[in-house]
Fold each of these.
Amino acid sequence: MVQLVRERIDAKGLRERIARPEDGAVVLFEGTVRNHSGGRTVKHLEYHAYESMALQQLEEVREEALRTHAIRDIGIIHRLGTVHPGECSMAIVAVASHRAAAFEACRFAVDRIKSAVPIWKKEFYENGAVWVEGDTMGL
Amino acid sequence: MVQLVRERIDAKGLRERIARPEDGAVVLFEGTVRNHSGGRTVKHLEYHAYESMALQQLEEVREEALRTHAIRDIGIIHRLGTVHPGECSMAIVAVASHRAAAFEACRFAVDRIKSAVPIWKKEFYENGAVWVEGDTMGL
Amino acid sequence: MALRVLFFASLADITGTSEVELEASPNVTIGAVFATLAARFPLLEPHRKSILFARNSRYATPDTPVQDGDEIAFLPPVSGG
Amino acid sequence: MALRVLFFASLADITGTSEVELEASPNVTIGAVFATLAARFPLLEPHRKSILFARNSRYATPDTPVQDGDEIAFLPPVSGG
């Protein structure tokens, strides 16, 4: 399950949809919007995406995580539009029999998303806003 | 915050108590009871603890995680008593500015708890029950 | 042949548009499409090295050939998560 | 001197009790307390190597001296989480 949403991310709902009684470990990662960045107070962020491509790429990240880690399932939700400090911009839930795979797959997915999925954030301050640009060296 | 509880663990509540708007990454680990173990169907588990010592040890794990990882906070809840398949037996939430520390601290805490905190589980099957014994080599 | 070209995030700010329609000659590559647009939007050129290219929602390289009806996208370094 | 000795999990099953009161001579160690109890509960002995010791809710070693009023605990390998 991969999703782009414009409303608040329901991380608990994602966990409930993904986890089953045969799983022994659930790892949930939430990226949350920080109220400061580079010494400036952040009022909010705006997330934009190349949506059709972002969904395909998220699905590829999901499939690669399933292929390369001993997990049973992994789900990803990324939020788009305006997100305020303290709110969740991305949630990933990985479930597995054992914790090592769940931790590693979750981390793998975050790293891949941050380097390969066409989503961008703009930080809004008291005065002004800038597009944050990541590092694509790893791609 | 470390806790031993006898009712269902409220992982979302834990997350909400621990995370603040200055955090950028939230990692939640849930150990969940599997419905099978070594080829046998598990009806339920029973967790017992040396409670006074377990609380002290959990607090030490928490403090060690805070000392050795760049996290802002970490909270741990472990359940005692009867726990059914699919239910959460332990939840750990680590929050940090950046995800690497949150992932590593959470994993560190799980590993330490499983090797150092005086809690034991007994698995109950259709017929019979056994105490599970961990590996204390790492202590 | 007709192409649809998409600009995202900072590149849309630079060009002042998120989308242009482009008439291109056959057998052109994505790199050539970029050169054409960099001539029209000179502020694009300094970003060339960091831009990622996509063709029909898939990552592509500058030497990927384009076909009639393709959707070409220019992507600045991503920053989701 | 008077000690309280606690058995947990499988060790409580083996001894049939989770707690015993013990009268011990002064300057005795936890290892000596274990030996006394292994004589009373012979099924304990084979577990000696895997048992962890605690004194007043803190991990201790077999050569830790015990004092009057101490709570000594014998812990099988833990399996929480």
Amino acid sequence: MSNSRLIRTYGDQINDGAVQLSFTLPLESGALAKEAAKRFCEKLGFHDVLICTMENIGEGFSFFVVYAKTPFSVDISDIKVITPKYKKLPREELDELVKTRFRRKIVVIGATIGTDAHTVGLDSILNMKGFHGDYGLERYQAFEVHNLGSQVAPIDLVKKILQIKPDAVLVSQVVTQRNAHIKNLTEFMDLLHAEGIRENIVVVVGGPRITHELALEMGYDAGFGAGTVPSDVANFIVQELLKKSPTV
Amino acid sequence: MSNSRLIRTYGDQINDGAVQLSFTLPLESGALAKEAAKRFCEKLGFHDVLICTMENIGEGFSFFVVYAKTPFSVDISDIKVITPKYKKLPREELDELVKTRFRRKIVVIGATIGTDAHTVGLDSILNMKGFHGDYGLERYQAFEVHNLGSQVAPIDLVKKILQIKPDAVLVSQVVTQRNAHIKNLTEFMDLLHAEGIRENIVVVVGGPRITHELALEMGYDAGFGAGTVPSDVANFIVQELLKKSPTV
Amino acid sequence: MNKPRIKLDSKLVQRAKDLAEKITDDIQRIIDSHSTVSVERTILRLLGVEGVVNEGIPLVNAVVEKIKEKDLLQDGVCRHVVNASTILEEDIQRTCEAIALDLDIASLPVVSEEQLNQRMRSLTQGVLDKLKEKSDEREELFKTLGDPPTPYKYLIVATGNIYEDVVQARAAVAKGADIIAVIRSTAQSLLDYVPQGATTEGYGGTYATQENFRIMRQALDEEAKKVNRYIRLVNYASGLCMPEIAALAAMEGLDILLNDAMYGILFRDINMLRTFVDQYTSRLLCAYSGITINTGEDNYLTTSDAIEKAHTVTASQLINEQFAVKAGMPHHLMGLGHAFEINPDIEDGLLYEIAHALLARELFPSCPIKYMPPTRYMTGNIFKGYAMETMFNFVSVLTGQTIQLLGILTEAIHTPYLQDRYLALANANYVFNNARHIASEVLFKDNGFIQKRANEVLAEAVNMLEHVAEIGLMAAIEEGQFADIARSRSGGKGLDGVFKKSSSYVNPIQEELEKRLGVKK
Amino acid sequence: MNKPRIKLDSKLVQRAKDLAEKITDDIQRIIDSHSTVSVERTILRLLGVEGVVNEGIPLVNAVVEKIKEKDLLQDGVCRHVVNASTILEEDIQRTCEAIALDLDIASLPVVSEEQLNQRMRSLTQGVLDKLKEKSDEREELFKTLGDPPTPYKYLIVATGNIYEDVVQARAAVAKGADIIAVIRSTAQSLLDYVPQGATTEGYGGTYATQENFRIMRQALDEEAKKVNRYIRLVNYASGLCMPEIAALAAMEGLDILLNDAMYGILFRDINMLRTFVDQYTSRLLCAYSGITINTGEDNYLTTSDAIEKAHTVTASQLINEQFAVKAGMPHHLMGLGHAFEINPDIEDGLLYEIAHALLARELFPSCPIKYMPPTRYMTGNIFKGYAMETMFNFVSVLTGQTIQLLGILTEAIHTPYLQDRYLALANANYVFNNARHIASEVLFKDNGFIQKRANEVLAEAVNMLEHVAEIGLMAAIEEGQFADIARSRSGGKGLDGVFKKSSSYVNPIQEELEKRLGVKK
Ligand code: B12
Ligand code: B12
Ligand SMILES: Cc1ncc(COP(=O)(O)O)c(C=O)c1O
Ligand SMILES: Cc1ncc(COP(=O)(O)O)c(C=O)c1O
């Protein structure tokens, strides 16, 4: 007896397996290139491979657009998605909760680390204005926000932490070329451990290529990807702090 | 010792294996659907799967755009491409060749068969005007052209052949939904055999989804796909007729 | 909006309209003296005759065949069926069933002309009341839900399975579609009968049947209430069953029918007499039921060059307009066809597109222009295609078109996938909204390329119409004046279904329609 | 073309220019009394000083450091280096090598002021002759090959490997690119030296080095001959080495440099005094060598709302213009920045885009506007993105922009793949060609939304400049007036590299440039 739930890609009939692809091959357009493109798609398991276009794009390369059918299904019954865990309370309630449980503001520090100069993402979590009509942390009575901006070296961020002693640290990473983000994030986490201050604080990371899974792997408390709104982060921080020290 | 020549898809570095995909899954957008999309791509062998967008497109379906990397290469050393065989002579030479070798015009009949109403493709092979600056068969002194137009039932085409006794028959098939073309083409070929007139004539088929391979499989002398120009067809017919009866 | 956006030579405009009127006058005389099997079946359908006999042949076909066999068709089916029904004291349906089973109508007694007329009058009244009711119902819903802004986003569904079509249509509506067209199965237009019931298989489209109409209408009305905007439903009339489909569409509350006075002749090789007669009856029904027609000039540009033969589109629009006027159609129901089909690689092609689109707009200021997307120059490069669609959508808002058939990026590849339709909507939603009021901001240079080009096309159309008026429309079609396609007047499908009306021919419904629409005495 | 396309309030235009002039006058006084380590290194580079000392530190850096250590930098490197060279009877290169090895320049005898001047004059002559030669060479090729029509198609390459960049650039040129920009490796602008040699690794870009410039210039010149049109080469100056990069670019015959008077301050947190001084020297060099500068106002719209803060773009363009005037630049070398960054989901957003684009065009009629594509609202839906690019390309031809940075459909995903660049070109080739002469056909309604909006933005810019003029540009930046980013005058990188010139400061090259360009006395 199986509970498997198989799903397949859809063009215009359930389970038809339709998929669109485009790619470049290092071959001049011609019968050989076309056949190579077809065989490549067959290697991916596709059948009914339709090479819709083959165009020379210079320097001996060809561009292809393909529609094809896959025989593969995905069993979604065994997918367990992990996401940061928190209840989504309205801003007023969260403010109230912090007031009664902490009797002070939660101090947060935010920075984009390494040579990454992208601030828009972090700003949209921290600034009053927020994101997509959802107010940023500065707007909450619950938070005291220190936004250090971009291009902050991990070591400098650690110095600031030692000085300000925040409850939570928010790190942003947008540039992921050559895994620059992994390098920066690991370095920062190592420094926190070296200074012995990792345990006391909630450390989250965000950015368009960040997943919760990746964040956990690197020892962060949570990871927030594209489309995050500030209230997600606000709730997570407060509830995580309460989990860490339920006695406050 | 191997002569294999492995090639792989290219994004911005040789052998990086970059491919773009888009597809629809029968799932509402969300963490589950995203993971399902990722797993599907992994089933295709991809790694570094980047789900770039996931959008609800109504009725419980989601649309995905993905970039990913494939580990698969294609060995192009063993690809043998089959295409119709002929030398490409200029129109004047071909006319001259027919004049000296046949001492009469080559009679051709063209038709789009079945309920297919697309005539533009066939017309662009047969009409004076031609295609992409390449003159059509009517323009050659070598040919006498009978263009029956579209929606010709296979049986009616056979009747016309018995009446006109052409040297070559040109069949067009554009609509391929539910394999309508296969059905029509097979039926027509069967009728030719039944009437015992297959051997004497050159029979070619063309259309945007026709390949030479498919044409051969169905017993045609050649198949012409998208982008065919009339001179391809003109040369093929004449040279094929000469092969069939080299004594003329 | 600053109207007019470009100045057309008013003398040319007048001349064009006059010529088209004359051309269609000549044909209308022939139409008036003929009827067809399809027109006769239409009468029966309107009278409520339903069902199929053996092998799925509709009862209406069987009845008309029987009457024809008995050589009585020239009087019209109405006379004989109503006579039989009166004599047998059966309703029309039962009478027809009996006729199909070979009732010898020729040997039945004949009721008095007065009694016959009286009975026909009352039946006609019933038919027209029912149609009115249906169109009032639709008008009501329309008023409640409100009209979306133009250009309306028109999407096609074509799975072959009406239930699957419903899913696809609903998804499209959820993402912004204003109009849903169910494409017919390939070559249905060559069938000389209308299939019956809900269908789940088709070739590149779904059969047009009364039940399929009903299913989709209901689905769209439900969806419309959800999205709070009226959703129009389209099907195709042109073909061998033009008036019958119009009748079924009217009964089921459809909003738009593809309905061209010449499409069947040119693109389906249907006999011209057959088509001319059929289109007239179908348009009377559309006019009465408030169904917008869509003509098919766009198709010309799939076979002929869109710049070289632009004037054939204009000439045909003028002819379609006059045929529609003759069928009592108000201009707001005449959706004239046009298309964005210029080779995208031509320098300044877009200026031509704008000129042609503005010409259609200005020459028919009260008609809802149906604007077709690029199809012919769409290739397997779906990205390039998507860029072309973007410009098409932009030209449409810029020139103030009405009904926008959204282009599909996979046009050269397959009938639309769900995601293809979604992307078409994403494109149109973006462009229409982002450029919403562009038409009232932009002017075109007086005597500039665009204005000159529009007048040039109009002048060429007038030239062509002069010729057509001289030799007659039928001869012009025989010459291949439209779409580069030549058709002979004695050729094509369905000529055997046309007949000359006898002096005792009656068609009370048509007469009443003509009266109410004010087209005949 | 009908010019002007929209009417701007001429009083506002005058006021705007006056204010910007005043604002930059105040800064120019400060500039004139300062120099920076980068300016000094530039002199050495122009004098032909090459090579690196240990750990890849360029010799020019080592020399400037040494002179600084000896507390002599305030006189400028020229005085001391030329003095030493004269005394040692060595050429400048050898002299610098000696200084780097700790030659005690302070203890050397001092030649007469006259002798020094004479030597410096002859060196300067040599330098400027060489630059002239290089730019003449380029002009020559330009004339032979001819200029492609505008908007020029500008494509970026960014593999990190200069040899791979060449392949990508060649492919782009083959498919229609007119301009190739080699994006710098991430954060190179924060390096206080220019790396040396050909490089094959970089982060999101390729290092700007003299050798990389040379390699790409040569590749493009070869390719240009094949496609028979001149191909422009772009790199980036803004950053800590602004004048040095300008010098290297001039020596290697580059055509365009990203070069903004405030970009480094705002987006790279470089000290403002440092940037102001550096930009001046770099622009003198560009002006002399016929290098077009590209300013970076487009960046503002990546952090601020493109409608709300449209006037900050205009204000900044006006300031950049005046700074450029002060550096002797003719208007045809001032490529002012602008961008198509309005949220695509805004109703009539395109009307705003057109208004803003026309404003840039009309306010700076002789400047080649650099028009940036949508980036901020590009998402992972590459199709929607491609539609946005299509409209961007259309607005560009419609409003007559000059330098078109082609949008890349994968902007939100990765640095461009080969196929992404190809598709960007396919889009622009289609739109530009298909709408080639649209700008001379279309007029905008007098007093319509577009004209009003352009004047509104101009008025807001004037308001802002009034305020800036009152408090001074530095204070305004401290307030966060530009790009919503606040920077303090004592903060930011590179302040320690700025110094006040002593009374014996000399910089003969700069003086000569100023003289030839007619900007001083
Ligand atoms: C704006 C922008 C810039 C601006 C940045 C201005 C500024 N002050 O931020 C400028 C012009 C300066 C810039 C420069 C560069 N950029 Co840039 N830029 C962008 C762009 C267009 C938009 C980014 C953005 O603002 N998004 C909007 C915000 C709201 O979204 P977000 O960042 O994803 O943030 C959301 C979530 O991720 C999350 N989040 C983000 N951070 C955090 C932090 C926490 C704690 C939490 C909880 C959540 C969170 O919440 C936010 C709201 O939902 C993107 C392309 C694109 N369309 O995405 C490229 C892009 C990010 N840039 C890129 C690159 C390569 C560069 C350069 C390195 C290019 C170069 N070689 O010079 C330079 C240098 C910058 C540097 N050293 O970092 C690449 C990155 C590729 C990669 N994956 O590595 C992109 C994808 C463009 C591309 N295709 O090449 N850029
Ligand atoms: C124009 C057109 C029409 C016109 C046809 C007018 C006419 N008289 O031909 C009209 C509007 C009538 C039409 C109708 C329909 N069409 Co149509 N049509 C097209 C369109 C836009 C262009 C086709 C074309 O003219 N191409 C240009 C010619 C030159 O190219 P070609 O045919 O490939 O020919 C070249 C080669 O293939 C080859 N070749 C072709 N034939 C032959 C023969 C020989 C002997 C040789 C040697 C070579 C050769 O040489 C030619 C030159 O290189 C395509 C979409 C597209 N952009 O491709 C859809 C398309 C072909 N149509 C399609 C469909 C489904 C229909 C309909 C069935 C829709 C419906 N449900 O009503 C109807 C009905 C038609 C029918 N029963 O067949 C589908 C077919 C899908 C499929 N693969 O089955 C397409 C792909 C559109 C789509 N995405 O749905 N159509
Ligand atoms: C006016 C008109 N009628 C009918 C049709 C469709 O006819 P068919 O069902 O014969 O393909 C079209 C073409 O799309 C058309 O333009
Ligand atoms: C004017 C200007 N200079 C320089 C740059 C690039 O600077 P960096 O190399 O610091 O990313 C930009 C941004 O693209 C710019 O607009």
